[in-house]
Amino acid sequence: MSRIKTLQELFKRYRRPGDIVFAILFCFFSFFLLSQLEFQTKWVARTKLYAQPSFWPAASILGMTIFSVLHYIGSLCSPRIAGRWTEVWFWLRSAEYVLYFLIYVALVPWLGYLPSTMAFALFLALRVGYRSRQAILSAVAFGMGVAIIFRAFLQVKIPSGELYNHLPDAVRAFALTYL
């Protein structure tokens, strides 16, 4: 039976493309958090260790730092796999969607939640390649459904848009409350 593995097989490290870049970035991030810990939390006198405001953040960041250094050492010791920069480029391309979301968040106070969400859903559908009439209508309906559920049914307080101020009085009151 090949289900039983040796300890060496159990802990065998499989390096992936871009692993060393991720390990370096994660080390820098964990060291940065560790350097900021003193300014973000405090140790209180005459308080038990586990009840300290700084204890759990310090324990988690210290653990993250130790494991990020071990990950970096493991990446250095592992055989190199080609494709590192292809992987890094893929990560950077994925940041494109973060930029789209930030633009969406910036547009909500101007256009309002309903029009911004409908436009965002439509844009994302077109961006990923859905071009059929049914896909476009589904994206717009999804955006409308999300906005109406969050504003009208769940009563989530989302800022209304400047665009709503230019609507007629009766429509504006409805839009400010439910759209």
Structure explained in plain terms:
By secondary structure, the protein is mostly helical. The chain is built from seven helices and no strands. The protein has two domains: 7-82; 94-178, no CATH class. The protein has helices at residues 7-10, 19-40, 55-77, 84-111, 113-127, 133-153, 169-178.
Provide key terms for this protein.
69% helix; 0% strand; 7 helices; mainly alpha; 2 domains
Q: Provide mean pLDDT, rounded.
A: 86
What about the largest sheet? none
Radius of gyration, CA atoms, in whole angstroms: 25 Å
Order of helices and strands: HHHHHHH
Fraction in helix: 55-70%
> Could you give the distance between the termini?
62 Å
Low-confidence stretches: none
What spatial form do the alpha-carbon principal axes imply? extended
Relative strand content = under 5%
Based on secondary structure, the structural category is mainly alpha
Number of domain units: 2
